[in-house]
Amino acid sequence: MPEGDTLYRTAAGLRPYLVGRTVTAARASGPGPIPQVRRLIGQEITAVESVGKNLLIRFDGGLELRTHLRMTGSWHRYRPGERWRRPPARARLVLEVPGTVAVCFDAPVVELLEQRAESLHPALGALGPDLLSPGFDADEAVRRLRDPSRAHRSIAEALIDQRALAGIGNVYKSEILFIERISPFATVESLDDEALGRLVATGERLLRANVVPTGRAERVTTTGDRGAPGPLYVYGRAGRPCHRCRRPIQRARQGEALPRLTYWCPDCQPAPRIIAPDV
After folding, report:
1. What are the pLDDT digits (tens) for 149-170?
2. Is residue 53 annotated as part of the catalytic site, yes or no?
3. Element (H, E) at 198
4. Which of 47, 49, 106, 264 could form a disulfide with 72 if both were Cys (CB 3.0 to 4.6 A apart)?
């Protein structure tokens, strides 16, 4: 599922074939609002970047394409005339430049905006520090996690709040909390700054490790651990034995507005103690 590392690798894969080239054809389709991408024909692509879970393509005319893949979308690159690996009806966006056809399939979000308005964009402007940015500010990420609006939220929910820090999704959330032995149900206010700092540092380490080209397609969080159960410690392993204590891994949905799956070990990540108030 696309998280910050996936978008980073996608941008890196498209960049050599798009940047510096002029758009010769562009088309988009629904469902949802259809951006007027024909405006991009004749413009030169100046940048292809990932920002958290967003892919941004910038043009010399001041426009910018934003795609968000969520759970279904993906970018493909083809040679002109090459057969596509997915049906054309599933293409949400097609960009053609000399020598390359870039196709975004099944993305729920495709929009065209002015680059100068990026800071005012309701999603982009509110993003927290990007863990894969060269200038990633860990202290700012901790400060945002500590914001009073998140004090009573579970740490699992806070870690995937892109307004706190950008790039972490369900897989990394579960893996980070397991590595740091913190219950996903602990509230943010119950954790000290040292614990939050460790979570942020582990998140940055894992994402960066997974954007280095290795020839493998799968995401790995267990590098260097010879006794690890596979590429991941807990995510997708409900009912299987914990790598540390052998107790079965648990799974539950967390969050009210948009519940997400969380995997954890109840022994290695004990539930926070509930202290009854004095009466």
Report:
1. 999 999 999 999 999 999 999 9
2. yes
3. helix 193-209
4. 106
